[in-house]
Write a structure and sequence with these properties.
about 425 residues, alpha/beta, Rossmann fold, OB fold (Dihydrolipoamide Acetyltransferase, E2P), Fumarate Reductase Iron-sulfur Protein, Chain B, domain 2, 6-stranded mixed sheet, 4-stranded antiparallel sheet, binds iron/sulfur cluster
């Protein structure tokens, strides 16, 4: 049984600096020699001829595995397909990686402009689900699980990451258009825009949405935290936001939707916060699919042996092992860490110092929970120690005296439990 709805969440403790009003201009990376597009489905069965190596693709062209309905990816460049291979992402996410050698000039595909003329939301969603910010618009077309509230998060979901907030502050007109079009085309009953409290007065009254302020303290900007604050509920085991009729979207995605439906072209440049080894920040704009190595080159970052490359921010990011890893539609940050400044995780046991409990905004007995998770006892962790109250902020891992990768254990546990087929379903 979960205790959190009863006790509620504690006030987050880490405040962060908001972007100043004199916004830094992002560095723009011109078209790289190759991009890698990630089609979100595994390879298998006969592929469409459009995916054959040697085939030319146009900027804005929708690529799918075959002609059957299913996931697609929009090409961010004009060029020739050189390679198609299987790629395994974290937590079992399967992709087909499509490597495209780019041409200097763009030739645009007209498929999206045609989809804009039709009233079919599903056709639009095929194109728009891969825009910067990666909004899952297909959820708006599912009659089994209708969405009643879209929540746009305008703050960022990790410390030091400015991507979303930069978009909120610099692209208000596109966001307003995106909100208008979501209302008109998707018929969303309620749209809520969350913005950091200190800049609330700049946004209230400018959108066809309810604007709410969230304190600029980490992890208030996390979707799980916003969900709890808004609905006074947590997601229980096996539940998703969609089951609750809620769709979360980054502000960057809403701005991209506004831009796409106005220009009749699918936006293809992702904004990324780049943190160098000295902790300095730059904003970079690059085509989706650009290898991270190109971004490091453009920002003067050179990695040495044992340095670490992280996709995401310091609290929730994930280490990657190749500079060929592409920027994806949901890549908000890239962080380089110098080997001398990396605090390694360890196999030391928990010493019950209590640091994790003091910092946890969900008031979880993290020291006990982690013992169950280390032993693979995920269901007990969920049933007895509030695994599902965790908002995945990573503060516990950050402060852990024994350097236990607690957040990774928690994410793995949720992933494994979600994979388990309920007995009744298996018997059907
Ligand atoms: S990640 Fe850790 S600190 Fe954050 S809510 Fe979960 S258990 Fe608490
Ligand atoms: S911070 Fe780490 S060592 Fe300390 S009680 Fe929590 S899990 Fe144990």
């Amino acid at each position: 049984m979960l205790s959190k709805p009863f006790f509620g969440y504690a006030n987050p403790k880490f405040t962060y600096e908001l972007l100043s009003t004199s916004l830094p201009r992002p560095v723009t990376i011109t078209s790289p020699p190759v991009v890698t597009l990630m089609l979100p489905r595994k390879m298998g069965g006969a592929a469409s001829p459009q995916l054959k190596p040697g085939t030319r693709v146009l900027t804005g062209q929708l690529l799918t595995w075959d002609d059957a309905p299913g996931p697609g990816v929009v090409s961010s460049v004009t060029g020739t397909i050189r390679q198609v291979s299987a790629h395994l992402g974290d937590y079992g996410r399967k992709y087909t990686a499509i490597v495209v050698e780019t041409e200097k000039a763009d030739e645009f595909d007209e498929g999206f402009a045609a989809a804009c003329e039709s009233a079919d939301l599903s056709g639009l969603a095929d194109y728009l689900s891969g825009v910067p910010g990666s909004p899952d618009l297909h959820q708006l077309t599912d009659p089994q699980k209708p969405i009643h509230t879209i929540i746009i998060y305008g703050g960022d979901t990790d410390l030091l990451v400015d991507t979303n907030l930069f978009v909120v502050k610099s692209r208000m007109a596109d966001i307003a258009k995106g909100i208008h079009l979501l209302k008109a085309k998707a018929g969303a009953e309620k749209i809520v825009l969350t913005v950091p409290g200190e800049s609330f007065q700049n946004f209230d009254g400018h959108f066809e949405a309810e604007v709410i302020a969230v304190p600029n303290a980490y992890p208030y900007g996390q979707p799980l935290m916003i969900f709890y604050q808004r609905f006074n509920r947590i997601l229980d085991q096996g539940q998703t936001f969609q089951d609750q009729g809620v769709l979360f979207m980054r502000a960057e995605a809403v701005a991209a939707i506004g831009q796409a439906l106005t220009e009749k072209r699918v936006p293809n440049e992702k904004l990324v916060t780049v943190l160098d080894k000295q902790g300095r920040k730059r904003l970079v704009s690059a085509r989706i699919g650009t290898p991270i190595g190109e971004i490091l080159k453009a920002t003067g970052i050179t990695l040495q042996e044992r340095d670490r490359l992280v996709l995401g921010g310091p609290m929730t990011g994930t280490a990657v092992f190749s500079e060929d890893q592409p920027v994806m539609a949901d890549t908000d940050a890239i962080m380089a860490q110098d080997a001398s400044r990396i605090t390694a995780t360890s196999d030391y046991p928990c010493i019950n110092c209590g640091e994790c409990i003091r910092v946890c905004p969900a008031n979880i007995a993290v020291n006990i929970l982690v013992r169950f998770l280390e032993a693979g006892e995920y269901q007990e962790g969920a049933d007895l120690y509030d695994l599902y109250a965790c908002v995945e902020c990573g503060l516990c891992s950050f402060v852990c005296t024994s350097r236990i990768p607690i957040l990774q254990y928690i994410k793995l546990a949720k992933f494994e439990l979600a994979r388990e087929v309920p007995v009744e379903e298996a018997n059907e």
